[in-house]
Amino acid sequence: MNFHVLTLFPDMVRNGLETSITGRAIEKGLFGLDVVNIRDYTKDKHLHVDDSPYGGGAGMVMQAEPIYRAYEAVKEQISGKHRVIYVTPQGDVFNQQHAKELAEEDDLIFLCGHYEGVDERVLDMIVTDRYSIGDYVLTGGELPAMVMIDCISRLVPGVLHNDDSSVYESFHENLLEYPQYTRPEEFMGRKVPEVLLSGHHANIEKWRREQSLLRTARVRPELLKKAELTKKDRAFLKKEIDGWQDL
Ligand code: ADE
């Protein structure tokens, strides 16, 4: 799988993604990262890539042409189907299910906007999907693109050391992850829950399931509506959570 990022701040994207787990995965060739500087595609002699908005108003708008030319250059390198994602607060709010679907693609092209926006014509021409990473406004699209690439790439086989760990964690089956502990057994008077030291696998599984249910019910109750709950799960929640309504 290859990620292509069209940006005015290539160093920011490279420095972010060529670090830690994603960096190691890129080095191993598990996925490709192609960062394209939109400014390299301007025909303006002063290398401008933005201009003031028609109709007036504050700020600058990124021009269509350099973005279109950068996109064409990327398209020449890829053979098949691809998607072009514009990261914007006006998109669908990105979630784990979207990540799963996008991880099936061979090539994803991210367009990072800046200033007051991007000329709508180039968006209409090239963009297939618009995603937001949440209901808040950032200064540019680089961080959202990096967030999405981090999330999608860890679903690519081999990127995580232990392939199980992308499955058994928060948002798997719409339940939040259970709490984790490691050595020492006691830290500043706080002990690791006894059951985890017991070696009794069935009891450990049961405890973890219950902890996931409790956390989800307390912090993100709306997720439980989408979770597949067993009779035992429902009975447990009824007993533990005051006023818990069977959904
Ligand atoms: N650009 C600025 N803010 C954003 C957000 N929350 N999500 C995606 N792109 C953005």
User: Unreliable segments (pLDDT under 50, ≥5 consecutive)?
Assistant: none
Relative strand content: 15-25%
Total beta strands: 9
Radius of gyration: 23 Å
Question: Mind explaining what this structure looks like?
Answer:
This protein is an alpha/beta fold. The chain is 36% helix and 17% strand. It has a 5-stranded parallel beta sheet, with helices on both faces. A two-stranded antiparallel sheet has the order 3-4. A two-stranded antiparallel sheet has the order 8-9. Helix 3 (64-77) packs parallel to helix 5 (120-126) and helix 7 (201-219) packs across helix 9 (231-240). The two termini are 39 Å apart. 23% of the residues are buried. The model has no long low-confidence stretch (mean pLDDT 95). It binds adenine. Adenine binds next to strand 5.
Key terms for this structure?
single chain, 5-stranded parallel sheet, alpha/beta, 247 residues, binds adenine, 9 helices, two-stranded antiparallel ribbon
SSE diagram, text form:
Elements: E1 2-7, H1 10-17, H2 20-27, E2 32-37, E3 50-51, E4 61-62, H3 64-77, E5 82-93, H4 96-102, E6 107-112, H5 120-126, E7 129-132, H6 142-153, E8 186-187, E9 190-191, H7 201-219, H8 221-224, H9 231-240
Parallel strand pairs: 1-2, 1-6, 5-6, 5-7
Antiparallel strand pairs: 3-4, 8-9
Helix pairs in contact: 1-6, 3-5, 7-9
Bound molecules: adenine (ADE).
Adenine binds at residues 87-89, 132-134, 136-138, 141, 144.
